[in-house]
């Protein structure tokens, strides 16, 4: 774990920028990505940390914007070098958050947003306890299944795997600072904005 430097002196509080790490997590298909996109459009002052992944781009995804798409061997090399704040394997692919970029932006006073899976969010809670974690819940499990099937991007086997995992993830919601139900999209966005900006 990399520790942020603490400056001594009476006026530290006044001059230090107030950066913070915000983690958005929840089960696959709950709408984390769409919520994040909307927040970033409305609040350009937020910094979105783009994760690295070994999965293939989905239709419409851009390298460097949605994810940095890299090979499995390159990812494993970065893990060995300690370059990730968190990383996890999900549905047969690796995902990870680059450490240096995130810490630089927090130190410069930015609100840094991560949209990550449960395992990664737990790693952040353990190694970065000052992070604020927000868990996005579906209104019902059947609605979540409808959303995942509605994507039309996954095989039946993959859908079953995602749904099974989603049940486990939903049970972990209480581990996180704030839970928001994504029933009405605009309401969910406003609730997150209230958490971020008071």
TrEMBL record:
<dbReference type="Pfam" id="PF00625">
    <property type="entry name" value="Guanylate_kin"/>
</dbReference>
<feature type="domain" description="Guanylate kinase-like">
    <location>
        <begin position="19"/>
        <end position="197"/>
    </location>
</feature>
<dbReference type="InterPro" id="IPR017665">
    <property type="entry name" value="Guanylate_kinase"/>
</dbReference>
<keyword id="KW-0547">Nucleotide-binding</keyword>
<dbReference type="GO" id="GO:0005524">
    <property type="term" value="F:ATP binding"/>
</dbReference>
<keyword id="KW-0418">Kinase</keyword>
<dbReference type="InterPro" id="IPR008145">
    <property type="entry name" value="GK/Ca_channel_bsu"/>
</dbReference>
<comment type="similarity">
    <text>Belongs to the guanylate kinase family.</text>
</comment>
<keyword id="KW-0067">ATP-binding</keyword>
<dbReference type="InterPro" id="IPR008144">
    <property type="entry name" value="Guanylate_kin-like_dom"/>
</dbReference>
<dbReference type="InterPro" id="IPR027417">
    <property type="entry name" value="P-loop_NTPase"/>
</dbReference>
<dbReference type="GO" id="GO:0004385">
    <property type="term" value="F:GMP kinase activity"/>
</dbReference>
<keyword id="KW-0963">Cytoplasm</keyword>
<feature type="binding site">
    <location>
        <begin position="26"/>
        <end position="33"/>
    </location>
    <ligand>
        <name>ATP</name>
    </ligand>
</feature>
<dbReference type="InterPro" id="IPR020590">
    <property type="entry name" value="Guanylate_kinase_CS"/>
</dbReference>
<keyword id="KW-0808">Transferase</keyword>
<protein>
    <recommendedName>
        <fullName>Guanylate kinase</fullName>
        <ecNumber>2.7.4.8</ecNumber>
    </recommendedName>
</protein>
<dbReference type="GO" id="GO:0005829">
    <property type="term" value="C:cytosol"/>
</dbReference>
<comment type="function">
    <text>Essential for recycling GMP and indirectly, cGMP.</text>
</comment>
């Amino acid at each position: 774990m990399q520790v942020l430097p603490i400056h001594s002196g009476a006026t530290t509080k006044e001059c230090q920028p107030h950066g913070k790490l915000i983690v958005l997590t929840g089960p696959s298909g709950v709408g984390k990505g769409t919520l994040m996109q909307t927040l970033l459009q409305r609040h350009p002052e937020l910094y979105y940390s783009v994760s690295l992944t070994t999965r293939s781009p989905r239709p419409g995804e851009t390298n460097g914007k949605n994810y940095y798409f890299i090979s499995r061997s390159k990812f494993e090399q970065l893990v060995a070098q300690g370059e990730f704040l968190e990383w996890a394997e999900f549905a047969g692919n690796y995902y990870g958050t680059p450490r240096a970029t995130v810490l630089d932006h927090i130190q410069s006073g930015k609100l840094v947003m991560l949209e990550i899976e449960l395992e990664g969010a737990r790693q952040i809670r353990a190694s970065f306890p000052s992070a604020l974690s927000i868990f996005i819940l579906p209104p019902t499990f059947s609605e979540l299944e409808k959303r995942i099937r509605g994507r039309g991007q996954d095989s039946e086997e993959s859908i079953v795997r995602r749904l099974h995992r989603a049940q486990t993830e939903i049970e972990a919601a209480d581990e996180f600072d704030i839970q928001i139900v994504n029933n009405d999209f605009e309401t969910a966005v406003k609730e997150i904005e209230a958490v971020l900006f008071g």
